[in-house]
Every structure is written in C-alpha cells, then in structure tokens.
Amino acid sequence: DLDECAASPCKDHQYCLNTDGSFSCKACDASCVGCTGEGSEKCNTCASGYVKEDEKCTDIDECNLPEKVCTKENQDCVNTSGSYKCVCSEGFEDKDGTCVQT
After folding, report:
1. Which of helix, strand or coil describes residue 67?
2. Residue 31 and residue 60: Cα distance in Å, rounded?
3. Residue 37, Cα to own-chain centre: how many angstroms?
4. Domains of the chain: which residue ranges?
C-alpha cells in the first residue's frame, strides 16, 4: 500500500486517512483550525471560541467570564458551541434591539 497521505492531499480543515490502496479526507473537529486526526485532541490550533485544556480544544463559556458579554438591560447570556448569544430574559421580548416587558 502506498501512503497517499504523505503528500498531504487534503484541504486545511481536513485530515487524511490512509486506506488499503487509497485514502480519504475527513473533516476536522469543529473546535480545530487544522488537525492531524479525529477529535478535539488532534487540533493544530483551537478555533475561535475554544481554548486548549488538558490537550483538547474545549468550548469557552463566555457567559461565565468575569466581564459580562450581554450588557443590555433584561438580557441573558446563552453559551453555544464556540460562541454565545444574548437573549431577552423571561417575560421580555426583543423590540428593535431592546428587551421590553411582554
């Protein structure tokens, strides 16, 4: 078997998997910017919104940072994978970018 992966035939956001007589390109984990294999522990570097922790790229919980990320009145922070979103608190709704009581 010829190791086609030695020539790095895959794109930057993929890793190469050598198979018998061939190869395939697999997508890197969402937490990675470039990778050497499957999973968040094989990242070259961590994507935005992720930090290297115990040799893995793990999600940063922006909602638990010392500095508040959702600063508008009556607004709550919701952590998402690699990011966060600001939503109006319960009993409030978004009216032109402001949370007003429903």
Report:
1. coil
2. 11
3. 16
4. 4-59, 61-94
